[in-house]
Design goal:
single chain, 213 residues, mainly beta, SH3 type barrels, OB fold (Dihydrolipoamide Acetyltransferase, E2P), 3 domains, 5-stranded antiparallel beta sheet, 1 helix
Length: 213
């Protein structure tokens, strides 16, 4: 397979590597914003959205409603907290890795720091294989030293292996597109001028065509 291409990583700054033996910081609920990482009930969470409710009555408490995703289970919940409630900063690490290959025993990645080969199960890899080719650089997320998920680059570049003829494209949405299959098996809608063998840029979050590579 072709090697991975130009990568741009969307990694929240709080997820950077920590120095050993540092105490976890405490985060006030009112300071939790979108993409903030925090620990609640011994689980790591990512804030997807936050909303502050200011009291109208004297003596009322300011409340913070958080839409939060559990990084271990991917479950999304809405919870309301008092503004002064405190959360620990989770013990998260981001380890640079490159994708090697997958087989019936799992998916294999090369740790870019110590060059060890890591075998990750399907529950950690998720649907990332839709956008991974050999050599793709990405980040492995660890919680308390254990792998829990992958942080994909914002974009990947993949080769088109099959594409419908341009005349059969769908113009109903206003922009003429057609279906294309990429080297990973992922199917995307692409402009009519895209041909088999071309390399295209795909947004990993939406799995949508972003442009020619």
């Amino acid at each position: 397979m072709n090697g991975g291409a130009k990568m741009e990583l969307a990694v929240p700054s709080i997820m950077n590597r920590k120095e050993p033996h540092t105490l976890a910081a405490l985060i006030d609920a009112i300071n939790v914003k979108r993409r903030t990482l925090f620990e609640f009930e011994n689980n790591p969470y990512l804030c997807m959205d936050s909303e502050i409710s200011t009291p109208t009555a004297r003596g009322g408490q300011t409340l913070v409603r958080l839409k939060m995703r559990n990084l271990l289970t991917s479950a999304v919940t809405d919870k309301t907290f008092k503004a002064g409630e405190k959360f620990k900063e989770p013990d998260l690490q981001m380890v640079p890795v490159s994708y090697l290959y997958s087989d019936s025993d799992g998916s294999y990645f090369l740790d870019q720091d110590n060059f060890e080969t890591l075998n990750l199960p399907a529950e950690v890899v998720g649907d990332a294989l839709e956008v991974l080719v050999e050599g793709t650089l990405l980040q492995l997320q660890k919680y308390n030293g254990n792998p829990i998920g992958l942080q994909l680059p914002i974009f990947v570049e993949l080769v088109v292996t099959e594409a419908e003829p341009g005349a059969r494209g769908d113009t109903a949405s206003g922009g003429a597109t057609k279906k294309a299959t990429l080297e990973t098996g992922l199917e995307v809608r692409v402009p009519l001028f895209i041909k088999e063998g071309e390399k295209v840029k795909v947004t990993t979050e939406t799995r949508e065509f972003s442009g020619r590579a």
